[in-house]
Design goal:
Helix content is 39%, strand content 18%. The chain is of the alpha/beta class. It folds into two domains: 25 residues, no CATH class; 133 residues, Mur ligase, C-terminal domain (Protein-Tyrosine Phosphatase, Chain A, Alpha-Beta Complex), CATH 3.90.190.20. It is globular.
Amino acid sequence: MAEGIASRMLEVRKQHIKNSLGGFTNIAHRLEEVAVIRNVRFINDSKASNVNSAWYALESVHKPVIWLAGGLDNGNDYSPLIPLVSGKVRTLICLGTDNSRIIASFQPVLSEILEVNDMHTAVTIAHELAKPDSVVLLSPACPSFDRYENYAQRGDRFKQAVFQL
């Protein structure tokens, strides 16, 4: 956005700005579109290791969501996510070793919450549940250290599992 504004101030033609922005790719693990399979978008936002980051990810999606979340819960307050989750999320798939707090937070607004032990299972189930024109979003709202070395390893496992579909 800053590039576009600066370019306009320098009187760069709109078509040149549009062409340059059309080739923009996200940084890995930050709202990274991994694939579209059967008209379902798979988005890797593994870097969203806190509630605030997950809020922005959920806010940016304008289609029904299957949300992959959870990890090392440090006493997170998930309440800021409840309005978004109740309006957008169809299924929550929990990946943490202890999902009790995240489940308790969203059970009042979601009818389908599942727990899995690994990323491959999470992605496989999400793929089976996803309807066309929806999104499978990995945006954990928690650090990864309960199962992974870091958010990048978690995101890479997500991508590997999506590519295996």
